[in-house]
């Protein structure tokens, strides 16, 4: 079996393993969950009618970061609480009835603009509006423990609520859990397989340059620089692509903060950077720093600004594919 076949098998094996992991948990079930009892007994015995009601009430049990939730077989009215869940649910073919934005009254991410028409804004990610969520009468609410644990009980009183543990580097596991919650497991396997196939193509087209191209991922702020490492969202895609990191960044951690004086830690053949700060340190100081000017990526013209919404806050499979687009555009299609 060639390298392409081996990698495909590995990706599919990972997909199956993650799907299997989503089905079990040692956590205690949430006793507040209950299904509705409705239906018609036309053409059925009383026993059949009661059995049908019982099945409708039970639905499916999904183990998640807060315990267990009983969800409908096919959720139709989904509320999401972060960009990653929004990205993923749309990729699975379901349009949420409600979703937040990074900041209050911001638009939804531009890279999803053709998919978000009609979705109601439920407030900011940090402070979703519970009254608006209740008005939307969701079947399922999708969020994350590390962001919304404090309001989990209130959300769970509105609708069955499924939380991933955290956001970012766990985005593939999150996709599978969210897919399980809304009854779209096959769709999740399909989109991840397509992602894996694109990475295979990237590796093949890079050839020998793949292992020789060290990549840095930076977020310049007003007074410091954050380097995103291997356990960041964008870091996982760069690693999936087979691209190495400079030695100072080759760490299984989320991020590291460096000052202007530590510019040498930003080494690499290519520097991808993004920032929401218009007065970020890259523009105000680094460009005039002699050490910065000596960096290999700077001298080669390989300091590339990329989209903050995908590289930083996308956190879903569509954002991951946009990052792969950038890798093709700047490293392959030169």
TrEMBL record:
Q: Which UniProt keywords apply?
A: Lipoprotein, Signal, Transport
Chief place where the protein resides: other
InterPro entries cross-referenced by the UniProt entry: ABC_transptr_periplasmic_BD, Bact_iron-sidero_bind
Q: Any idea where the Fe/B12 periplasmic-binding domain is?
A: 77-334
One Pfam family here? Peripla_BP_2
Q: Which GO terms describe its biological process?
A: iron coordination entity transport
User: Where does this one sit in the cell?
Assistant: Cell envelope
PROSITE patterns from the UniProt entry: FE_B12_PBP, PROKAR_LIPOPROTEIN
Give TM segment ranges.
Answer: none
Q: Can you name a GO cellular component term?
A: outer membrane-bounded periplasmic space
Region forming the signal peptide: 1-19
The annotated regions of Polar residues compositional bias extend over 26-35
Output the superkingdom of the source species.
Answer: Bacteria
Q: Where is this region: Disordered?
A: 25-55
State whether keyword Lipoprotein applies. Answer: yes
Tell me its family: Belongs to the bacterial solute-binding protein 8 family.
Q: What is this protein called?
A: Putative siderophore-binding lipoprotein YfiY
Organism of origin is: Xylanibacillus composti
